Amino acid sequence: LATLYKSSVNFASPMLFALGFLFLFAIGGVTGIMLAVVGIDVHFHDTYFVVGHFHYTMAASVLLGGFAATYFWFPKMFGRMLNETLGKIHFWISIVGLNGVFMGMMIVGYAGMHRRIYNPFVYEFLQKLIPINMFITFSAIFMGFGQLFFVYNFVYSMFKGPKASQNPWE
After folding, report:
1. For the segment 75-107, what is each residue's pLDDT rounded down to a tens digit?
2. Is 45 helix (H, G, I), strand (E, B) or coil?
């Protein structure tokens, strides 16, 4: 009876992506509370803070949830396992890149950078944000580079990955 209730958490790629989903969705939820306060929303309305909040809530969480499902169901769909090391590299590059992009957007929004402006740096008060915007760009490139690990892992494992057992996640 004691072994019936004994369990342990396995931090394989699907679990990492699922926990990453929860983390990013929580950040989006907490920043949504800030936008619900009228006194704060007056200043954040139509800034990059709203863009960062929206993408944390919708885009990043959906992306990580989709990767969690792909890593989890891949053995049942194709009968082979994905490479776990490449999956973890993919997770960490994705989570660091996503946070760099969307947290950076919230920081420049907090500083007053409006969205829907063709070139915001023609305004003198926004020129101090150029380094943060460069950081956002490099974070996006870094995150895009990390997706190559997933593509390689997916294609290679589909044909040459180790055979999956009937219960691959035990």
Report:
1. 999 999 999 999 999 999 999 999 999 999 999
2. coil
Tokens of 83: 């490479």
25-66 pLDDT, tens digit each: 999 999 999 999 999 888 999 999 999 999 999 999 899 999
Q: Which residues are CB-neighbours of 71 under 8 A, at least 6 positions away?
A: 12, 13, 14, 17, 82, 87
Does the pTM surpass 0.85? The reply is: yes
Cβ-defined contacts of 142-145 (< 8 Å, 24+) = 142/93, 142/96, 142/97, 142/100, 143/93, 143/94, 143/96, 143/97, 143/98, 143/100, 143/101, 144/97, 145/93
Q: Where are the alpha helices (DSSP H) in the chain?
A: 13-36, 38-44, 48-54, 61-78, 84-110, 130-160
Residue type (1 letter), 165: S
CA atoms within 13 A on the CB side of 26: 6
- By the 8 A CB rule, do 157 and 74 touch? yes
